[in-house]
């Protein structure tokens, strides 16, 4: 292309010659960049890629062709904004955004279903166990504070009891209240020290 321009360089003003040579250099770079893609059969390219990468290759190729046509319209002095190529470029950009969203969803953290089932099962067991022990302790002769120390307790409940007992002065009796939110209902355990 540079050889074709060299013979007619006298026909153009010097400002345009600089812009045309820059444009020619850019087109040469585009040709060099696209040459490996154009030399390889499309079937081979698609076989080596996963569907998402295949979509990316197709979108880049379509965008490159339409961008070059946009440039061609500009060179001819036509307004590409009024040409259907503008809608085509917008459509391709929309698909590129969809591919980007799909990529972001793949990178997003995923729910570990077995772990979440274990958490829920454990919380339900603790709630049922605490309810059963509370009902059993209502009829027992020992105080609930003594039996609650023997039962397995959720960590939050143990911390609440430790905080309350550390606040009390030695030798004083106090009423202790521990709350445990099990996700189903709040349990309230009261006892005396």
UniProtKB/TrEMBL annotation:
Q: Respond yes or no to whether keyword rRNA processing is given for this record.
A: yes
Q: Which GO terms describe its biological process?
A: maturation of 5.8S rRNA; regulation of gene expression
Q: Where in the cell is it found?
A: Cytoplasm; Nucleus, Nucleolus; Nucleus
**What InterPro entries does the record tag this protein with?**
Exosome-assoc_fac/DNA_repair, Sas10/Utp3/C1D
Any Pfam family matching the protein: Sas10_Utp3
The membrane-spanning stretches of this chain are none
Give an example GO cellular component term for this record: exosome (RNase complex)
- Compositionally biased, Basic and acidic residues: which spans? 158-172
One annotated GO molecular function: DNA binding
Q: Which keywords accompany this UniProt record? A: Cytoplasm, DNA-binding, Nucleus, RNA-binding, rRNA processing
Tell me where the signal peptide lies. Answer: none
Which residue windows does the record flag with biased composition (Polar residues)?
140-151, 179-193
Where are the residues of the annotated region Disordered? 127-193
Q: Which domain of life is it from?
A: Eukaryota
- Recorded family membership: Belongs to the C1D family.
Give the quaternary structure: Monomer and homodimer.
Please give the function described in this protein's UniProt entry: Plays a role in the recruitment of the exosome to pre-rRNA to mediate the 3'-5' end processing of the 5.8S rRNA.
The name of this protein is: Nuclear nucleic acid-binding protein C1D
């Amino acid at each position: 292309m540079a050889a074709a321009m060299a013979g007619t360089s006298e026909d153009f003003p010097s400002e345009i010659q600089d812009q045309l040579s820059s444009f020619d250099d850019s087109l040469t770079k585009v040709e060099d960049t696209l040459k490996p893609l154009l030399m390889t059969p499309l079937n081979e390219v698609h076989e080596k890629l996963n569907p998402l990468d295949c979509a990316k290759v197709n979108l880049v190729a379509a965008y490159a062709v339409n961008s070059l046509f946009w440039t061609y319209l500009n060179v001819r002095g036509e307004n590409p904004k009024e040409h259907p190529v503008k809608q085509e470029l917008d459509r391709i950009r929309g698909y590129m955004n969809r591919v980007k969203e799909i990529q972001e969803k793949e990178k997003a953290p995923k729910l570990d279903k077995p772990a979440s089932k274990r958490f829920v099962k454990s919380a339900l067991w603790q709630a049922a166990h605490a309810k059963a022990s509370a009902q059993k302790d209502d009829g027992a002769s020992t105080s609930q504070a003594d039996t609650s120390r023997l039962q397995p307790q959720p960590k939050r409940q143990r911390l609440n009891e430790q905080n309350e007992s550390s606040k009390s002065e030695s030798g004083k009796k106090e009423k202790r209240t521990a709350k445990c939110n099990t996700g189903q209902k709040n349990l309230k355990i009261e006892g005396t020290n």
